[in-house]
Amino acid sequence: MELSINEIAYLLGFEQPQSFNMLSKQKTDQTPLEFRRPVIKCYSFKN
Q1: Per residue of the chain (47 residues), what is the pLDDT tens digit?
Q2: Cα torsion for 15, 19, 21, 26, to the nearest 10°?
């Protein structure tokens, strides 16, 4: 099961997903989606 960025933001206590995006960009220089792309690519397996 893969959570959406919005679901992750809400689980972390953010009322607005945009706040999660801005904080992530500010602290890591990447949005959550930019962070996720290479991780998913690295862990995706083909049958």
Answers
A1: 689 999 999 999 999 999 999 999 999 999 998 988 776 667 665 54
A2: -150
